[in-house]
Amino acid sequence: MARADLMDFDKALELFEPVLGFEVHVELNTATKMFSDAPNPAAAAVSGTAGDDATVEPNTMITPVDLGLPGSLPVVNDTAVRYSISLGLALGCSIASSSRFARKNYFYPDLAKDYQISQYDEPIAFEGSVDVELEDGTTFTVPIERAHMEEDAGKLTHVGGATGRIHGAEYSLVDYNRAGVPLVEIVTKPIVGAEGRAPEVAKAYVATIRDIVRALGISEARMERGNLRCDANVSLRPRTPEGQEPAPFGTRTETKNVNSMRSVERAVRYEIQRQAAILAKGGTITQETRHWHEDSGETSPGRPKSDADDYRYFPEPDLLPIEPSAELIETLRKALPEAPAARRRRLQESWGFTDLEFRDVNNAGLLVEVEETVAAGASPAAARKWWTGEISRLANAQGAEASTLISPAAVAAVVELVETKVVNDKLARQVIEGVIAGEGSPAEVVESRGLKVVSDEGALVAAVDAALADQPDVLEKIREGKVQAAGAIIGAVMKAMGGQADAGRVREIVLERAQG
Ligand code: ADP
Ligand code: MG
Asked: Rounded to the nearest whole angstrom, what is the distance from the C-alpha of residue 271 to the centroid of ligand 2?
């Protein structure tokens, strides 16, 4: 639907109440896969050093189990089960004393076995809730239906078309490295009451899940790499007069694999506006999956949504039920990291940020980045300044997430360069630009772009003297005690030095020379 045909967001909210539901897939970072001893491409050692999955040779991280070859049998990854229990506990869920795997049967070329091992009626974790913090500092509680274990499918690359989608492609390539990567799927209950803040709740929910799994250390949680994937369900129901029963839920659409927090927010807003426009004209919503298009900011129809019956779920005969002992569950519960809200309070205190400063960082989804930059040696104030300032500006310009552009260690190195006066703020911005452009570490960028501030006193003094000689009237004013007049001289010197001088030091020299 073209943007012009969408209903105005506020108008849509007047007529309808949005109902949301999220399915978030988390790739666990265990060393090996869910049911085989193949290395896990979503593990830190792989995704951290090799960067993108794309740098791993396709079809090199597979065993007969991942391909479903005859005679191969799955074996459950104990670490993945522990991680799943920890995640369930962190989501406030009950942990099942016995839970089972189930086969979800369907054909697709990325699924060599023709069935996915998942969990169906007996998930490992159920009935929980997650508190998410909104931009104004208030909390919204998202009810959790279940969190279940399953395996990922392989990856298809459609070649030869304009869009990278299967339609219009000449052929497709399949890479089974991802087949069998351990996943936890977290499913919310229908979320009501978010109202006009529905898009914000969507983004904050995904951010909170990301924070939780990162704090647990069980996933790399990089959305751009597919470690965390969100399907957003949206429906609308008409408002009923005060005092009457609310209308039943409307038909939902499921927007698949929205791969950034910002996109989740936009996709929910778009679906609310699109569905409202259709419903207001007396139309009906088709229950279907939809694709999110980052470039146009629209969703388009995917496939009609299957009922669970179509998958012919049945208990996986090759695996025993999972029966964690009460002791194990208690041990894992005691080892849980602090909850995100408590963590936020602690960080704000230790960084000494005002509410506003802290919210700035939190709302930009940059808590982890600032935390890691501080851990790498930067002052909290400097870490905040660079992440929420220059780096966010560059990220916006590129339509990317700030965290994907530069590492906390690199930012800390830039801060260090500023503090040791190797570069000034202005040059530091160029250093950051260079690092993001892939020109190397901060030190390498300073070297290759020649960005060092001039620390040669003789050169600075000469430049100051030249500027003072050029502007005798200013020199006169400074001598009369009008110190602020020095700004003109400092500006001239900075210009003469191509910005590569320490303005503070230049100021000192100007005052010295003017008196001398
Ligand atoms: P499916 O397998 O069809 O994707 P799931 O039960 O896994 O179904 O997930 C559906 C998601 O949609 C859940 O988060 C659920 O709470 C949510 N949901 C269900 N009904 C509605 C509705 N009418 N509007 C919005 N969300 C809904
Ligand atoms: Mg589902």
From this structure: 18
